[in-house]
Specification:
263 residues; alpha/beta; Rossmann fold; 5-stranded parallel beta sheet; globular
Length: 263
């Protein structure tokens, strides 16, 4: 067991060295100001944060979990033999899912952007509520393997404002509040388990009428992601605040078509 832990630790260190980028993800729910947060992150130097992708990393994690469970169950049936119904199952390695997921998602996040021009890479997503309570710990362990040292921006907004905004208005209020509560439980989990890798933002503070409050949020976000924030960068982030973000920015959500909430 000790040897196994040692080998795993060596692999994690090797993976971290082999990974060329740092990673940051926005953990939130819809209509929380997440696209504005995405815009602020993309204002930072050598930082590329993409938008929503239907959270396809979750099925990748579940595929690994299914393969692992199936492998554990049937290793006793001699899968190394060509006469076994499970021939080759012993060759299915959980680590392959990690490396493949990293390569796939990094390539998708970079797109046509030169990888040498980017230090920090990530995406924002609003479907974190799809993570089941019983799989939370295992999912983030998987995500940490795929993206070593990943940081998490935890974005919140007043619940009543969220429920009355955009596509949420077309859904049962209890279902909306349940989705919000689930995401905030996940945020609490990340604060508790990865306190040095999370940063809290709040829509009401980022858009406050108090310049000192706004600047505190902007500086904090920049320093969390890049390690610094000079006056020039702060001014660029202030300018970003003045731009519309999302399909119907700054409360212009009445024309937004309804979307179905999936869990």
């Amino acid at each position: 067991m000790q040897l196994s832990r040692f080998v795993s630790a060596v692999r994690r260190r090797r993976d971290a060295r082999a990974t060329k980028h740092q990673f940051v993800f926005v953990v939130t729910y819809g209509r929380s100001g997440s696209t504005l947060t995405q815009g602020l992150l993309n204002t930072l130097p050598r930082t590329l944060v993409r938008g929503e992708n239907n959270f396809y990393v979750l099925p990748l994690f579940r595929a690994q979990a299914l393969a692992q469970a199936f492998r554990r169950k049937h290793l006793k049936h001699n899968p190394a033999s060509s006469s076994s119904a499970f021939y080759g199952l012993n060759e299915v390695k959980p680590r392959d899912f990690v490396l493949s997921a990293r390569q796939l998602m990094t390539r998708h996040m970079l797109g046509s952007v030169n990888p040498r021009s980017v230090d920090v890479l990530g995406f924002k997503e609003v479907l974190w509520h799809r993570i089941g309570p019983r799989e939370t710990e295992r999912f983030f362990a998987f995500l940490d393997q795929v993206f070593p040292g990943a940081k998490y921006v935890l974005n919140r907004r007043d619940h009543a404002q969220v429920a009355e905004s955009g596509f949420w208005r077309a859904h049962d209020r209890d279902a909306v509040m349940s989705a919000i509560a689930r995401v905030e439980k996940i945020q609490d989990y990340l604060r508790r388990t990865r306190p040095d890798r999370v940063f809290d933002t709040r829509y009401e503070l980022v858009t406050s009428d108090d310049p000192a409050v706004v600047d505190g949020q902007l500086r904090g976000l920049a320093e969390f992601v890049t390690g610094h924030c000079d006056d020039a960068l702060l001014e660029q982030m202030r300018e970003t605040l003045g731009k519309g973000h999302g399909p119907n920015p700054f409360g212009k959500s009445k024309s937004e078509p309804p979307r179905r909430v999936t869990g």
